[in-house]
Amino acid sequence: MDLKGKDILTAAQFSREDIEHLFAIADDFSARLQKGERLRRLDGKLLATVFYEPSTRTRLSFESAMQRLGGGVVSVAEAKTASSVAKGETLADTVRTIENYADAIVLRHSEVGAAQAAADAASVPILNAGDGAGEHPTQALLDLYTIRAQKGRIDGLRVALVGDLKNGRTVHSLARALSQFKVDFSFVAPAALAMPAEVSDYMRARDFAVEETNDLARTLTKADVVYMTRVQKERFADPKQYDKLKNFYILNRDLVSRAKDNLLVMHPLPRVDEITTDVDSLPNAAYFRQARNGVFIRMALLAEILGG
Ligand code: NCD
Question: Whose CA is nearest to atom 1 of ligand 1?
Answer without folding.
Answer: 268
